[in-house]
Specification:
The protein is of the alpha+beta class and 537 residues long. Among the domains are: 134 residues, OB fold (Dihydrolipoamide Acetyltransferase, E2P) (Beta Barrel); 127 residues, Nucleic acid-binding proteins (OB fold (Dihydrolipoamide Acetyltransferase, E2P)); 91 residues, no CATH class. It is 20% helix and 28% strand. The chain is built from nine helices and 23 strands. It starts with 11 loop residues before the first helix and ends in a 6-residue tail after the last helix. One of its GO terms (cellular component) is nuclear telomere cap complex.
């Protein structure tokens, strides 16, 4: 049982006008559906009130965002629960107060359910609420029990707009009158339009909004110019904690893609239903520019204040819609002339020749290697000559504990460490704010080591390359591998490396102890750098 100091709680009105750490107790009047999950932590969002339960809206309450890397440590709140939050941080977000429980801090919570004789649910560490906290929580349960609902959509539009939304509210009547269906090539700044397009990329790792890249295969010179060689769409998070992907831009090259930001409730729908390749109809899309001078056109979809629950995104079956069929026709025409298709066909032909040669020459060697009869220190180098034939150009044999010159780390400036030092690294030890010592299962640290490969998985080398199942919709004109069945008809297969190596320390242990071993999962660009070969079927 953890004994937390019970700081005196304040009412919601005081918390709304405060900044810094406060303790609050309130009735949960609104819960964001589902637990949002990012690459770093999970988050639950809810709103608290302690007065005016019958005024029909929840915007005057205190919005809370609670983050935890373990979903089981999030408070499992429901509407009508009363929750105690100790030492939560009050910040300003878009001009309004927001209560934030960051992942790195331990914010005690206790939930009081309206059911009779229901004991408080406490977390993330067990503690006992004080007598005054229990008494106040029970009084809030009694006060709120007379109200059937806390939200009335007919009065919700009376919420005072923030400074950021004053402009959009004032222009809403005009935008409704001017809104019409448009192709991306015809969109102009400061207009509201309806669009039909294909999702090129979608990023959902933000609890407030979703970033969407949409194309209808028409060109607008005011849009950003996307190139085939680079991935221009934002990867990972907006603060660049996560590295950018090395994948090529999957959409059409040129100025055919409109970047837009979806706010709630549209963001929630997009997280659950949209993926790359989806065909969607969007209503009331606001075309605008950012404040950066010379910035390209972009778009946004906000909540409709007159109909807050109205959803302006809809998935459509393009074949059953006249404008959808036109979109499919333009898409087919574009991919006929896209250079990536011709390059893919050439790579497919080359990889087919390489595959046949390797199967005929290495069948016996592969069987012996799987049985452990051959040494992994033997190195062979192949090249494709001008006539398209794969020929052996070099054979090397390395000495024991010596790394082939052709196998080098990508970061030569980093000092080499042994596997023993890597596995026992002090970076894995950590101390929580409550002075609890624990060991992290992994750390995002770049190491460099000299190792020997002693085993690999999958057992068959031809299974090191797998199809890239990234959720792309089939291109109607794409050429496919002949070895695929009819279910993949019309799909351009992309291959990627994905395999596992079992490695051990190359130099023997000075004390004669067994060498440490480690599993290395190799995929994508790392495997290409290691093998000096692109993945193919």
């Amino acid at each position: 049982m953890v004994n937390e100091s019970a700081a005196r709680h304040v009412d919601i009105a005081t918390a709304l006008s405060s900044s810094g750490l406060v303790s609050v107790i309130g009735v949960v009047v609104d819960v964001f559906e589902g637990v949002f999950q990012s690459s770093r932590s999970r988050c639950i969002t809810f709103t608290l009130k302690d007065t005016d339960f019958g005024n029909g809206h929840v915007w005057d309450g205190l919005k809370i965002k609670y983050f935890k890397d373990n979903e089981n440590h999030l408070p499992p709140v429901r509407v009508r629960d009363v929750i105690l939050l100790r030492n939560i941080s009050i910040r300003k977000f878009k001009g309004r107060p927001l209560g934030v429980a960051p992942d790195g801090a331990t914010i005690p919570w206790a939930i009081f359910r309206p059911e009779p004789d229901s004991p408080p649910i406490c977390g993330p560490l067990p503690f006992e609420p004080s007598y005054s906290e229990k008494s106040y929580a029970l009084s809030l349960i009694d006060k709120s029990s007379n109200f059937k609902t806390f939200r009335n959509t007919s009065t919700e539009i009376n919420a005072p707009p923030t400074r950021q939304s004053v402009k959009s509210v004032a222009s809403a009547p005009q935008s409704n009158a001017n809104r019409r269906f448009s192709l991306i090539k015809d969109v102009k700044e400061r207009t509201f339009v309806d669009l039909i397009g294909e999702v090129v990329k979608i990023f959902t790792n933000d609890s407030e909004k979703v970033a969407l890249y949409l194309t209808d295969y028409t060109t607008n010179e005011a849009l950003h110019n996307y190139t085939v060689e680079a991935n221009n769409a934002r990867e990972g998070d907006e603060y660049a904690y996560q590295p950018r992907s090395k994948k090529q831009w999957p959409g059409p090259a040129g100025r055919m893609t409109l970047q837009m930001t979806l706010w709630e409730p549209h963001a929630c729908f997009a997280r659950e239903h949209l993926k790359e390749g989806s065909i969607v109809r969007l209503r009331n899309v606001h075309i605008k520019r950012s404040r950066v001078e010379g910035a390209p056109l972009e778009a946004a979809m906000h909540c409709d204040r007159q109909n807050p629950d109205e959803m302006n995104i809809r998935l459509i079956h393009a074949e059953n819609d006249e404008r959808g069929r036109e979109l499919l026709r333009r898409r087919k025409e574009y991919w006929k002339s896209d250079p990536r298709k011709r390059k893919a066909e050439e790579m497919e032909e080359t990889s087919s020749r390489r595959k046949k040669f390797e199967k005929s020459q290495n069948r016996t060697q592969r069987a012996k290697r799987e049985e452990g009869q051959t040494s992994l220190s033997s190195y062979k180098k192949y090249e494709i000559n001008k006539s398209g034939k794969l020929v052996l150009v070099q054979t090397e044999t390395t000495k024991p504990n010596e790394c082939p010159e052709t196998v080098q780390a990508i970061n030569p400036s980093i000092r080499c460490m042994s596997l023993e030092d890597i596995l026992d690294s002090e970076f894995h030890e950590n101390v929580s704010p409550n002075q609890i010592e624990y060991r992290l299962p992994f750390q995002n640290v770049c190491y460099r080591a000299t190792v020997r490969v002693v085993d690999f998985f999958p057992p068959k080398l031809e299974e090191f390359a797998v199809p890239d199942e990234s959720g792309h919709e089939p291109r109607p004109d794409a050429r496919v591998d002949e070895t695929n069945n009819s279910q993949n008809s019309g799909r351009l297969i992309r291959w990627q490396w994905r395999f596992c190596l079992l490695v051990e320390s190359a130099p023997p242990h000075p004390d004669g102890k067994p060498r440490e071993r480690m599993k290395l999962f190799v995929s994508g660009a790392d495997a290409v750098y290691l093998l000096k070969l692109d993945a193919a079927e």
